[in-house]
Specification:
Elements lengths: L3 H24 L7 H17 L23 E3 L9 E2 L2 H15 L6 E7 L2 E8 L2 E7 L5 E3 L2 H4 L17 E9 L2 H13 L8 H9 L4 H6 L3 E8 L8 H10 L9 E3 L2 H14 L7 E8 L3 H6 L9 E5 L3 E14 L5 E12 L2 E7 L3 H7 L6 E6 L6 E6 L2 H5 L20 E2 L6 E2 L7 H12 L10 H10 L6 H4 L4 H4 L15 H13 L5 H7 L7 H11 L2 H6 L2 H5 L6 H11 L2 H12 L8 H5 L6 E5 L7 H10 L3 E2 L9 E4 L5 H9 L3 E4 H9 L5
Parallel strand pairs: 2-11, 19-20, 19-21, 21-22
Antiparallel strand pairs: 1-6, 3-9, 3-10, 4-5, 4-7, 7-8, 10-11, 12-13, 12-15, 13-14, 15-16, 17-18
The chain binds 2-(butylsulfanyl)adenosine.
């Protein structure tokens, strides 16, 4: 083809064709060509676009496979806040909700649209002139993340709309879900690669949208169902008609919707889906009912969080029963031994479940767990399945032959007798310095992102090094060289994957870089029992350097906000162990930071004014104000247009929140505030 016009026409027709095939396949679930044909057309288009870059379009089907890497997700302020829904597990409350709406509107027999409550991640898509221009997550409802390039990889989301009767600008909201089939395939691959599988579809969907590389997102095979159209110039006044219209424009609207005109019809819908939900190809966690006539939406209005014209009924946690096979014991990095029940696999909440934690020996006693028991397993909104009851074997019970499952007496890894701490619910292995699983766990913690951030070494490669006795303690990591790493492979895996030259180089670089990690993270990285990220920060700030911590007594520790007896005792015990002190000394000599960087943190908040509200985890009110001022910021008591940030803790007053929203003041959590303080020290 040498005529440019001809090329353009060919490109346009291929794009249109591919969009149609994609729509038929992903939205209508009714493919009209086979995958190979589709791929060939896509390749042809891709070839032409590469040859004629002047015809590039970010809306081309070729761009779905993954655009540019997202370094940081841009923050987007929603034009219309993304409200959530009030929800209830009680049918009586649904009756009350409907009655309240009827009363407020002084009308009977209102029309309600009943829909599925998709269990995924909510998303808002902005279309201008019929093309997708932005996709953002809910975030805090006011401000979300711009995830456009990730969203474009979801094939059922139209990049161009069909027809021409759409408003010039509108938003459409819906839920990104991970269909069961794709989720299972994906988790299978993760397990094959030695990665931790995702606990459920919702987590996997939300984790996927946070990935930095859209090419990875494209591989996840996500889907998206839309359920809410919003904009200033939408013609249809009925919600149901709006969704029907959106379907005409090419959006995926689930067919499982119904109009109900009385409470019985609403209940029929709820009861039907409570039974049938397992047959759906994706997860739902309830039912949503919305008033059909949008004219009434304004009349009824909304509370601070949710509209009064819609509500959600949530299904009770799903339960399943299965026979106990055995109790396994896992040893964590701090030596705590966790019992895990293994049972016959059961299908529960969208996945096969075959083990669940029993937490500790007290919990086992409470459940009165016996051999041959049938377990009642539950998985609600929570990620982890839990055992809520045990049913004893009838025959054994009648004959008085029940045998309680006793907790093991020795560490399953190193055979050291286990110890039960006073007032603690569980046992632990006291062989802190020599139990191999504890050592591996501690190393994995040490190199993790929130600690020393030596992730190039990864949880697996560190195991190779330990197995081969190439590292023995944290300090020995800093004595590694590329030569020592190249060619090292796992002695326990058949795959014998070894560390290559490039990998070795990256590992050494990130070990070297980790010497810049601030003191509070080094303290966290040491893996002292009960010292989490937040308490490490508080302790580091309070004592300012490691010598002050080493010399501190239990009484000094408990004076620090949020450091209780248990943490204080653990700190004293850790710093009275001579092996630990020797290691700290070596790490210090190797160049790790063991004191707070005062200078660096001083000006971080310069020129910014803060209002704090609520109860904080890591600070008292006075402390957080002091931290703001110590870092150059101004702490003021009431919100005004000059305030830059509202730092909110738990139970922030609703008035403050409203006012901050009205003044468009950025609201940040304690965690986000902490990140502001440490950001300049990272990467
Ligand atoms: S409507 C103003 N409809 O449930 C109404 N939400 O807390 C906006 N969800 O954040 C929501 N299925 O993520 C609506 N059919 C559905 C839904 C749905 C799932 C999610 C959504 C929202 C949460 C409610």
């Amino acid at each position: 083809m040498d005529n440019n016009q001809e090329v353009k026409q060919k490109i346009d027709s291929l794009r249109k064709l591919l969009e149609r095939y994609s729509y038929e396949y992903y939205v209508l679930d009714n493919p009209t060509i086979d995958d190979i044909e589709f791929d060939n057309l896509l390749k042809e288009l891709d070839g032409l676009e590469k040859q004629y870059p002047e015809f590039y379009s970010s809306f081309s089907p070729t761009q779905r496979v993954g655009g540019q890497i997202n370094k940081d997700f841009k923050q987007v302020t929603h034009k219309y806040p993304m409200l959530s829904l009030a929800n209830t597990y009680s049918k009586d409350e649904i009756v009350d909700f409907v009655a309240r709406a009827e009363e407020s509107l002084n009308m009977k027999d209102l029309e309600w649209v009943c829909e599925l409550k998709y269990d995924g991640l909510s998303i808002s898509l902005l279309y201008e002139e019929g093309v997708l221009v932005r996709a953002s997550t809910r975030g805090n409802g006011v401000v979300g993340d711009d995830v456009t390039s990730n969203i474009k990889t979801i094939p059922s989301i139209p990049l161009h709309l069909q027809g021409n009767d759409f408003p010039q600008e509108f938003e459409i909201r819906g839920e990104v879900v991970y269909p069961h089939k794709a989720f299972e395939e994906f988790n299978k691959k993760r397990i094959e690669n030695g990665e931790e599988p995702f606990a459920n579809c919702r987590n996997a969907a939300s984790g996927s949208l946070k990935l930095q590389d859209p090419k990875e997102v494209a591989k996840r095979k996500l889907d998206c169902y839309l359920y809410f159209l919003i904009g200033d110039s939408i013609k249809e006044k009925k919600h149901y008609d709006r969704l029907r219209q959106a379907k005409q424009w090419g959006f995926k609207i689930a067919p499982y919707m119904a109009i109900a005109t009385n409470i019985n019809e609403i209940m029929d819908f709820i009861n039907y889906w409570d039974k049938q939900r397992d047959d759906l190809p994706f997860d739902i966690d309830g039912i949503v009912i919305k008033l059909n006539d949008t004219n009434y939406w304004n009349t009824l209005g909304a509370t601070a969080k949710s509209p009064r014209w819609a509500t959600a009924f949530k299904f009770k946690a799903e339960q399943a029963k299965s026979k106990l096979k055995s109790v396994e014991y896992q040893v964590g990095r701090t030596g705590v031994v966790t019992p895990v029940a293994e049972f016959e696999p059961v299908w529960l909440g969208g996945t096969w479940v075959k083990r669940a934690t029993l937490h500790n020996s007290d919990q086992m006693d409470k459940l009165s767990l016996c051999l041959d028991d049938t377990l009642v397993i539950e998985k609600g909104g929570e990620i982890i399945p839990k055992i809520v009851a045990c049913e004893h074997d009838k025959e054994k019970e009648e004959k008085g032959l029940l045998e309680k499952v006793g907790f093991i007496k020795r560490c399953p890894i190193c055979n050291t007798p286990l110890v039960k701490e006073e007032e603690q619910a569980g046992y632990y292995c006291p062989n802190y310095n020599h139990c191999s699983v504890q050592i591996l766990g501690r190393f994995q913690h040490f190199i993790s992102k929130k600690a020393m951030n030596i992730e190039t070494l990864g949880g697996e490669k560190i195991r190779y090094l330990l197995e081969n006795n190439i590292v023995s303690d944290f300090a020995s990591l800093y004595e590694l060289s590329e030569n020592k790493l190249i060619g090292v492979y796992s002695l326990t895996d058949d795959k014998k994957l070894s560390i290559q030259e490039k990998g070795a180089k990256n590992i050494i670089t990130s070990i070297e870089n980790s010497k810049q990690v601030p003191f509070e993270r080094v303290l966290f990285a040491l893996g002292i029992r009960y010292v989490g990220e937040v308490s490490a920060k508080t302790i580091a700030r309070h004592f300012e350097n490691i010598d002050n911590i080493i010399n501190a007594k239990k009484e000094d520790f408990v004076l620090v906000n949020d450091v209780g007896e248990t943490v204080a005792e653990s700190l004293v015990s850790y710093f009275s162990n001579s092996e630990n002190l020797l290691e700290i000394d070596r790490l210090r000599q190797l160049g790790l930071r063991f004191e707070i960087e005062k200078k660096q943190t001083k000006d971080i908040l310069m020129g910014k004014s803060f209002v704090v509200s609520g109860v904080f985890k890591g600070y008292s009110r006075e402390e957080i104000k002091k931290v703001i001022e110590d870092n150059g910021g101004k702490s003021v008591s009431s919100l005004s247009s000059k305030t830059d940030f509202l730092v909110f803790g738990e139970n922030m007053g609703p008035e403050k929140k409203k006012k901050a929203e009205a003044l468009n003041i950025k609201m940040i959590s304690e965690e986000e505030f902490n990140n502001m303080l440490t950001n300049t020290n990272e990467e």
